[in-house]
Amino acid sequence: MKKLLLLGGSTQQIPAIEYANKQGYHTVLCDYLPDNPGQHYVEKFYCVSTTDKEAILEVAKNECVDGIVAYASDPAAPTAAYVAEKLGLPTNPYKSVEILAFKDKFREFLRENNFNCPKAKGYSSLANAKQEINQFTFPVMVKPIDSSGSKGVVKVDKIEDFEDACKIAIDNSRSKKIIVEEFIVQDHDFMIAGDCFVIDGNVSFWGLLNSHRSTYVNPFVPIGTSYPLVISDKRLNLIKQETQKLFDLLDIHFGAFNIEIMIDRNDNLHFIEMGPRNGGNMIPDLLLMATGEDMVAATVELAMRRNYHFKSDVFLKKYISTHVLYSHENGAFVEVDYQNGIGKRL
Q1: What domain count does the chain have?
Q2: Tens of pLDDT along 110-144?
Q3: At what angle do helices 94-101 and 77-87 cross, to 10 degrees?
Q4: Element (H or E) spanning 6, and its range?
Q5: Count of CB atoms within 10 A of residue 270's CB?
Q6: Which of 109, 133, 272, 277 has a CA-to-CA distance to 34 between 20 and 30 Å?
Q7: Any idea where the ATP-grasp domain is (predicted)?
C-alpha cells in the first residue's frame, strides 16, 4: 500500500485526508497541535510541527512515504517541497516554493523579472523600517512576510501610524520580519482570487473567483468568494498570460496555486499573492460545485505520481458563493438566524 504524508490536520485539511483514504492510500499526518481533528482520520499521527523541515524529513524517511502534500497550508508548503526534493518525490523546486511562500522574496523575484511590482522592501527590525520609511510614498501597506489570510496586514495613510502598523505585522510574523510596499489602487470591484492548477508545467485549470472583503472589520481580510468572475475578456487573457509566464520562470511542474491578483487603472497586472497550495475557506469545494472539477483529487494523485486530467475549463452556468461568519465584536458564537427563507437554499 502506498503511503501519503499530509502536513496539517485542521478541519479544512480533512477533505484531502478523506480523499486519500478512499483511494486506498496509507495516510500519515504531522501537526504540532495535539488536539487537531485530522489525527482521527489517518492511519498514523506524529505531533510534529509542519514548519520543522528536518523533523518532517525524518518522519518521511522512517515511514518510507511515496508522496507528501501540504494541503491548504502556506507555512507547510516549503517544508513539503524541501522533504520531497530530498527524497526524490514529486515536487516543485524548493527554491521556487520559498519564493512564492515569502512576500519579501516574491516581491524581489517580480522586480528582477520585470513584472509589475510596487516599491517594496523587507525588514527584520522596526528600527530599520522607521529609518527608511521616508523613501516611500504614502499610503503604504505593512505586512508580515510569512502570514496568510491577511493576518497582520495594515494600510498606513500617514507616518504617525507607521510604527503601530509595524508592531502589528511583526506580532503576526513567524519569523518576526515584515515588508513595506506602496499601495496599489485597484480598478475593479473585487480582488481576483481563486485557485489554478498546473500539470506538466502548463496551467490546466483556471478556478478564478471574486474575493469579497469586509469594510466593517478589516478591508483586507477575505470574507468569502463568488462565481462567476466579474472581469473583461481582455483582462482575463492578461491574467492567464502573466500567470503562465510566472510559472515558466519558476520552473513549476505541477500543483494547485492560490491566486490574489489586482489590476490598476492603467491595466497593469499586479500579483499580490501566488500561494503554492490549495486555497482555504472552502475554495476547492466551491470550484467543485461550479465546475465539476476536483482540486483535492488532482492534488493528491499528482503527489502520488498518478496521472490526472481535468475534463474541461468551461464552467457550468451557476451562481455560487461562500461567506465566512464573522463579528464586529468579541463574544461566543451561538447560532445563525436565517431570514426570508434563505436557509433553505444553503
Answers
A1: 3
A2: 999 999 999 999 999 999 999 999 999 999 999 99
A3: 180
A4: strand 3-7
A5: 17
A6: 277
A7: 107-304
Shared-domain flag, residues 51 and 144: no
282/77 Cα distance (integer angstroms): 18
pLDDT of residue 312: 67
247 in a structural domain = yes
Per-residue pLDDT at 149: 76
Cβ burial of 49 (10 Å; 0-12, 13-18, 19+) is middle
Q: Based on the domain organization, do 20 and 138 belong to the same domain?
A: no
| 3-state SS, residue 132 | helix
Q: Is the dihedral of CA 204, 51, 23, 290 positive or negative?
A: negative
For residue 260, the domain's CATH number is 3.30.470.20
Q: Which helix (H) or strand (E) holds 81?
A: helix 77-87
Q: Decide if pLDDT at 11 tops 80.
A: yes
Of 55-59, 208-212, 217-221, 266-270, the one with minimum mean pLDDT is: 217-221
Q: Rounded to an integer, what distance in angstroms lies between the CA atom of residue 343 and that of residue 251?
A: 46
Q: What is the DSSP secondary structure assignment for residue 23, as one 8-state letter?
A: T
Alpha carbon distance 193, 273 (integer Å): 9
pLDDT over threshold 90, residue 324: no
**Can you give the three-state secondary structure of 335-346, one letter per residue?**
CCCCCCCHHHHC
Separation between Cα atoms, residue 260 and residue 191, nearest integer Å = 7
Domain that holds residue 161: 119-182
Q: What is the mean pLDDT of residues 198-211?
A: 96
